[in-house]
Amino acid sequence: xxxDKSTSKKNKSSTDDLLKGNGGETHQQxxxxxxxxxxxxxxxxxxxxxxxxANPRGPTLLEDFILREKITHFxxxxxxxxxxxxxxxxxxxxxxxxxxxxxxxxxKILTEVGxxxxxxxxxxxxxxxxxxxxxxxxxxxxxxKFYTQEGNWDLVGNNIPVFFIxxxxxxxxxxxxxxxxxxxGFPQSASAHDTFWDFIxxxxxSMHMVMWIMSDRxxxxxxxxxxxxxxxxxxxxxxxGDSTFVKFHWRPKLGLQSTVWDEAVKIAGADPDFMRRExxxxxxxxxxxxxxxxxQLFTQKEADQFPFDHLDxxxxxPEELVPLKVIGRMVLxxxxxxxxxxxxxxxxxxxxxxxxxxxxxxPLLQGRLFSYLDTQLSRLGSPNFHQIPINAxxxxxxxxQRDGQMQMNQPIGRVAYEPNTLSKDSPRESPSxxxxxASNESGDKGRIRPESFADHYSQARQxxxxxxxxxxxxxxxxxxxxxxxxEHLHIRVTMVTxxxxxxxxxxxxxxxxxxxDEMPAAAQAAAKAQDMPxxxxxxxxxxxxxxxxxxxxxxxxxxxxDAALLESIKKAVLKAGASVKVVGPKIGGAKLSxxxxxxxxxxxxxxxxxxxxxxxxxxxxxxxxxxxxEAAVIDFIRDAYGHLKAIAIDKxxxxxxxxxxxxxxxxxxxxxxNEAFISAAKTRQFDREKTVRTLA
Length: 696
Ligand code: HDE
Description:
Blueprint: H1 5-21, H2 65-75, E1 88-97, E2 116-125, E3 140-148, E4 151-158, H3 171-178, H4 194-201, H5 207-213, E5 228-229, E6 234-237, E7 243-252, H6 261-270, H7 274-284, E8 290-298, H8 300-305, E9 325-334, H9 340-344, E10 357-359, H10 363-380, H11 458-466, H12 469-484, H13 489-502, H14 504-514, E11 552-556, H15 563-575, E12 579-584, E13 590-591, E14 597-598, E15 602-603, E16 614-617, H16 621-627, H17 631-642, E17 646-649, H18 651-659, E18 668-670, H19 674-681, H20 689-692
Parallel strand pairs: 11-12, 11-16, 12-15, 16-17, 17-18
Antiparallel strand pairs: 1-2, 1-9, 2-3, 3-4, 5-7, 6-7, 6-10, 7-8, 8-9, 13-14
Helix pairs in contact: 3-4, 4-13, 5-11, 12-14, 13-14, 16-18
The protein binds CIS-heme D hydroxychlorin gamma-spirolactone 17R, 18S.
């Protein structure tokens, strides 16, 4: 009889070491000897390799309660994934206030300068399932849980400052339209299909958001290079009960950066976990991502003068109208110990606020105040989800709520109500607790969309005219790409009828790209679009930083590569703040010109240039000749070029460039000129684009 118990014993100590290293102690059952494997009842297990059988080759016995316990638990390991934002990456960190908002709010998190408040931040895509890829064209969720001294505050935002719809009642339709089509179960994590564009074409209020999602914002380079927005107007309330409106913003220290579409598509194949891995590696290396926290503050009187309604989540407040005031920073510096316990179980709710912060009447926000608490009940299965460590406040909390599934506490005493005379120590309401802003609500009850929400095109137009010509071309091309995936002609045409209100030029380019026979008439508009001045703050390219910090450089080598040149490029790039990966044909390494064996970080076939911001090719002529037969090498160069990246080449590199039929431009530099390489690598060669693809 085969019995591998001995193997299990042999492996035991190394498994134990691993558990210890990972903080595994904390997830062992309470107490006891950790080296002893037990059932959930604490019963020692003597054989974890073989189930109980009637005879060595006979049937398994129902009696095997150890097998049944283990398999039953395994069968129930998953909880329902989030209906939206299922795919996410969470990281611990802290928030530090640098400027007090005492005048506007009593919330300590916004008044106590220098206090470091722990946070857990989860960045997500919206449409795909939890196992979907990291780089679809999609909005990114940006949810921050602040564990403040006055309770948890959840700021559950996105990387885009506006939203698709104005009223929460439309959300299930929007989500059903963008998710996989229900009869066929695809496409996964993609808006480029009929049901999404059908819904959008019938929802003119989404046109501003459409401009944002078709822009490069939705194909970010890194989770560390995106902005975050609270989207809705909230209220701040001070000690006197005065209320001021506020919009919240996160701005990444590394600046904004996006990929180009073809690159995003190829990254999905090369590394479906690209963004999560990149964040993990940055945190492991001590390159902690950081964001500035900023607010836009405005009064009701100021809001009355805005040429739009700030309660409408399809509108933003241009920075030129209300400037951003930076008041703090967030640093993410600790990867979770356990993905399920933290990233999967974290439960954000926009209704989690602290005294001094309150809601506006934005009808989308109002609907969210219901939805998130409700969704936690089905995801986490119990009203006690706040007891899960990642969700529990780090300040004391006490009330008379009792019992329920998975109750972990055992409150003592006979009193579970308030007010009472029988328990002096039991929790009571207090004036320092949360208070809603006093507001005077009057008017007719009804299912009414206010007149002030009727303008659907002005800010879409403002967004488009604020972009650089490169970004305008990307928006037009993204629309052509997405609508070309739509099977129904009438949906394509209806979309163009909306674009006509945004920009005649954009409508022309998209109609031409789609091969429409004739230009349709503009859609009927509920309100005439106004011309707003361009706002450069709405660009992505304009917010790229002139830095190599946080970027990643790939260096291609093979046997015979110049050791000194490789070393010099590596040194210069690391000094500039980027990370370096050396790629070669064999993972074991390459024998360099000085005879040394250089163990590479990635094997060529699995490490294409799409994973880097710029590449250097360091090859001997002979090395280049051998590699030139490899399609992966030609792709490495052609993709780097096509994705507008800087390429440094030596003599061997030039041979491959010729082989790949790539014509050098100013982004192609001599590998011995580190300064030129670093300067070119800090940006993308946008001027090159017209030579490599036809944009709309
Ligand atoms: Fe969400 N949203 N949402 N949403 N949302 C959820 O809550 C919902 C909206 C956002 O990392 C769900 O726990 C409604 C706007 C983020 O765990 C759900 C409406 C914004 C996350 C839900 C909106 C967001 C969610 C699904 C329209 C930007 C992920 C799982 C009224 C300001 C948080 C969950 C995380 C998640 C409902 C619109 C951001 C179903 C009804 C606008 C970042 O409750």
